[in-house]
Amino acid sequence: xxxxxxxVFDRAADFYDHSRGFPPGEEAAVAAMMARVGGLSPASRxxxxxxxxxxxxxxxxxxxxxxxxxxxxxxxxARLRAKQNGEQVHLSLADAAHLPFPDHSFxxxxxxxxxxxxxxxxxxxxxxxxxxxxxxxxxxxxxxxxRSIAELRSAWQQVVDSERLSASNWGRPVQVLHELGWRQDxxxxxxxxxxxxxxxxxxEGFRQRLWSSTWALTDDEIERGAAVMExxxxxxxDDPAQPVMxxxxxxxDVYNPPAGPDG
Length: 263
Fold this sequence. Notes:
This protein has helices spanning 27-38, 57-60, 74-83, 121-131, 147-154, 162-166, 172-179, 199-207, 219-236; strands at residues 45-49, 66-71, 89-93, 108-112, 138-144, 183-184, 189-197, 244-256. It is of the alpha/beta class. Strands 1, 2, 3, 4, 5, 6, 7 and 8 form an eight-stranded mixed sheet that branches. 32% of the residues are buried.
């Protein structure tokens, strides 16, 4: 069996910000929500793994005293540096499974769209428990797309090998967190927003391999997946090339690490 490798986003640096998450203008509300639910303050020392282009780090850093980010991609972090406008974010090229920080050194850890990309999920989660102070939270952020968008984007999975799909199972991180003794603190918090969605544009993004879930697919799988998506879009929209308004959400779950030997 081939050993799975963590996915590096060098190839996505030029288009990442235009293909992910919430639209421009929502980042302030997302950061405010994360700071509130994480109990962040000017005294907080925070780490984000998979910091990327700073879509989360840059608006969130002003709520903290010190903000650190690690990533496997120099190109993605270069984009963050180019966007900085006084935000203090300390960056390191590092693997989240081998963090260059001492034990119990952070008041919170931020993880957004990263767990499904790592080679050793258990190893990364164990490292996060190591660097967090006792009782400090893990803030796990994710998108919750409108159902029609989610169904369109997942339609291509019908033509992809099931073993490769299981490697990027979005539900597995939650299962592993619970298995390793992490406890969810409260209900999922969410910031909802209305935005335009162009079905044909999403399909073309799939063809252009804008999402990491497409990078390992063959050209044949890409075309068969696009055909399935186009058939679904034609059945649901009068004109898939025209924008429709829809509502999605950015969600945050708060997890507390397992108690150490002293309680």
